[in-house]
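Components:
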Amino acid sequence: MAVESLGSAPRRTRVAPWNDPVIRGWVFQIVVVSLVGLLAWYLVSNTMENLARQKIASGFHYLEREAGFEIGDTMIEYSPASTYARAIWVGILNTLRVAVLGIILATVLGTVIGVGRLSPNWLLSRICEWYVEAFRNVPLLLWLFLFYKLISEAFPGPRQAISMLWNSVFLSNRGVYFPVPMADPIHQWMGLAFLVGIAAAFFINRWAKQRQATTGQPFPIMSTALGVIIGLPFMVWLLGGAPSHMSWPELKGFNFVGGTVIQPEFTALLVGLVLYTSAFVAEIVRSGILALHKGQSEAAAALGLSRGQSMRLVLLPQALRVIVPPMTSQYLNITKNSSLAIAIGYPDLVASVNVTINQTGQAIENILIIMAAYLSVSLSISAFMNWYNKRIALRER
Amino acid sequence: MTDMPVGERQQLAPPSDDTGILGWVRKNLFSSWGNGLTTIVLIVAMVWILSGFLEWALFTANFTASTGSECRGGGACWALIREKFRYIFFGSFPYEQHWRPLFAVISMLAMLVLSADRRMWNWRLLVIWSVGSFITFLLMFGQLHIPLSLMLFVALAGGTIGLAMRSAVADPTERSAYYALIVIGLIGLALRIFGVLPSWSLAIAPLSYVETSLWGGLPVTLILATYGLLFAFPYGILLALGRRSNLPLVKGLCVGFIELIRGVPLISLLIMASVMLPLFLPSGTTIDKFLRAQVAVILFAGAYIAEVIRGGLQSLPKGQFEAADAMGLNYPQKTLLIILPQALRVVIPPLINTFIGFFKDTSLVLIIGIFDFLNTANQALVDPNWAGFPGEVYLFAAFVYFIFCYSMSRYSKYLEVELNKGTRR
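Structure:
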């Protein structure tokens, strides 16, 4: 009877093998994996056959050959006589440069716009709202074209360049030229001092927090940290004899010589990326702040914290928990969207690799390089942001 | 002041600077010193910018010039748009046939608008999309050749899906119709494979044939985005289900695929589709460039849709899964009848946002040489007679994109409120 069977230990009923979920699961997985494997095998064998027929070499040996193409905007030394590997490395550095600057600027601008949308001033919040709507409802590529064309067509040529700041900065359709200090060995030491300053600021911050936690005495962290970070390199510069030779841009022939230049392609790409992404960042920041309960700011005010303190110590740390995950995907988007550079001629990774594909015909290896580079950048950004997210996450006791 | 009881006091209107326009201005624009200063600075800046813009775009603009040189020197040259708008909208489609892409766009817009109506969210959706797609592609191609094997495959797929979805509720006639479709499809396909049936195709050819390399402008953007999402949808669902599955191998494959696609930029997929797809296929097969771009968009879209749908799956309480198991439903029944209907309802608004993203992202196909709306706008600038007016063309294109994306994002917001009516307090 049913009552008896309740009392006895549960015995596993024997089921037919085709009804056993475990066996079914394995059969299904084997079928799926073999189908995928079959497809992969089909594609690979076709590819091999096609490559052999078209006599395209395979392997990464081409990387050591001479690239033979010019790159307009390089951060490291590069000439057409350099190898393909170096050309691709130049591209990776250019991608990283625009991505890092873009992430920083878009975060700052997006936060300003996002806070502006919540302003009690009706006009300000409406303007910020329309900024967001205008930038995020139009493709990024269109913005890039527009900015690039505006820079290259609305700005005058180098001979009629707009000079600013007592003939030291020149705006023209070849970019923005401005003076830089002549290379000097002291610069490396200044860079080192800068890093030491950041490390020192970090430790001062820890010490100050500890002191405040034990004695209750606050410490002016911000001004001390800024002083250390700026002051140390400055002192190194003074000790090194304060070398102050500058390289000034000068019009020679058809273009400027000397100084340094921000290329129009780079400017258009950076401006486009920052304006477009800041619209998304603004929405994230706004929703993060709106997610906080009103009682939080009231309680902070009741404790006697100033507006700045309550923002810094109470509101922002909580809003960050909502903000960080979607912000991570925006940072990834900036990095990936920087590949649109190819459309306006900024030599980023995809642009370098695309030229390499056209010259060597080795599409597969090159596309593997693109994917590996972007995947490792994406994965490191998400790893960093996940670590940061864990650090600020709510610690429940 | 007065000792009158409260009820008998004369009721006074609120202070005049607290109500009406004046009160509103005071409250929203001049509530404090800083606020008032901000307002004044903003108004001055806006007047300055707007007057400059209107001067350029309206008062000194040229609407009627017949060549670019007549436009020069003044404000905006809208005459360029007047001259080029048909090229911008329809690309190099044969000029006297432009009514075809026009009606194709109208048919696609009608499809999208009808699908936006919640009353259509049933079998009607299937009818709308079959008829709409048929009209769209007939107009664009001019001639359609439907191979017999495709029809047989559709019969097989329709029968299988119908049976899977409706086996519990269908009456015997409906059920036997599904069986009939499956049997016809299976036998037909088998005969076709063994060469008994000829490779016949139904030709519908009322118009002249226009190949995809001549397509351009708005229809291309709409087709790439709409059909990209449409085809990516079922396979995104499969990827999402695979990612949530308990089977380690299936889960690993799905996670790997989704993360790989999401980790690389769309451009690299497009370049891959344009240079590697020909290598993947047996030698001698050529595939259309447009189709290659469409495949890349579908692959890309699937990974993103999978993540959106996964969000919907995760939002379902565990009890739903357990209850379905307790009812004795098997996996397909549980998924199709219990899980997906609830999960998909939650993700409709984010899916529309994903669609807006694709609508914008299709503009990248210009890098592999397809003439989408942005590319035709770009090409309109190349004409030496009209050189030097990039601002006008890009603003016009931006305006068109804005109308599409903004109305879709409004709809998504409306739907979010509408779908949550039942659960809101």
